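[User] Could I get a sequence and C-alpha cells?

[Assistant]
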Amino acid sequence: MCVNNIDCNNVWLQDDSGLNRKIVRRILESAPEVIPSNSCLYEADDGTTALEEMRNLQAEGTEMDIVLIDFVMIAMNGPEAVSIMRQSLHFKGVIIGPCCSIFLLFYVNSVDWDC
C-alpha cells in the first residue's frame, strides 16, 4: 500500500506468488533510477482482486502509471485482466508482463494482449 502519495508514480504489482511479489518489490526498491523511491506500490494476488481494487482507487482519484502483471493466476489470469483494464477502466499506462518462461508463445501473446 502506498505510504507517501506526494509526487509519486503509482505502480501496480499483480502476481499470485507472494515470493515473486517480494522479489519484484525488492528489485524496485533497489533501483530508484528506474522507479522513483517515492513511488506508491500497490499489490494484488489475482486479476479479480486487482481490478476491484483498481476501480476503488480510480473512484478515489488515484490512477496507475505502471502495471506489472503475471500471465497465469487464479481467479482471473493476466491477459483477461489487461483486457478489462484497457477497455473498462480505460487504463492508458504501461503494462509489463514479466514472465520466466523461455517459450516464444508467451512473447507473441503478450504483444497480442497489449502488454
